[in-house]
Design brief:
Blueprint (H helix, E strand, L loop, with lengths): L2 H4 L7 H16 L2 H12 L6 H20 L3 H8 L9 H14 L3 H13 L5 H19 L1 H8 L1
């Protein structure tokens, strides 16, 4: 019996939190394979309530950015697509999804994600300001949309 199982007052999702924390620590320590496997398991855990859904989103964002760092762009997008669009992690997930899309030579998908960040939650205003200045023009350049926008103005 583990200490968490022996303590009836332990949080009902302590095991999920432990796997999340261990997954993040392993990725940071250089054991990407094991860390990503733990994050993936948390990122796909059934979400009976908001606490689990929030932790699942955090795990998917961590996994997505770990995959981005490892240049696993398709895997990054798969993890980031699992994040809820109405949750507190949505801007990070959309930003990561956009970067992964650009790396996969899919600038239109990137542009959609970046614009969603700009149109969405402004709780992360500082990040949105930077995003507005950098990413959409780069994605528009790749799609030719900047020229279309200039002609429409």
């Amino acid at each position: 019996m583990t200490p968490l199982q022996a303590n009836p007052k332990a949080a009902p999702y302590a095991g999920l939190y432990a796997r999340f924390n261990l997954g993040v620590a392993l990725v940071k320590a250089g054991d990407e394979t094991e860390g990503q496997a733990l994050l993936d398991s948390v990122g796909q855990a059934p979400g009976p309530d908001e606490e689990v859904r929030s932790l699942r989103d955090r795990a998917n964002v961590a996994l997505g950015f770990a995959n981005l760092a490892g240049k696993l762009h398709r895997d990054a997008r798969n993890a980031l697509q699992r994040v809820r669009l109405n949750g507190p992690q949505s801007n990070k997930a959309l930003l990561g999804f956009g970067w992964a899309s650009l790396q996969q030579q899919e600038p239109r998908r990137a542009l959609v994600a970046f614009r969603q960040v700009l149109a969405g939650n402004h709780a992360q205003q500082q990040g949105n300001d930077c995003l507005h200045l950098v990413q959409p023009p780069a994605a528009e350049h790749h799609t030719g949309q900047r020229q279309q926008n200039a002609h429409a103005a």
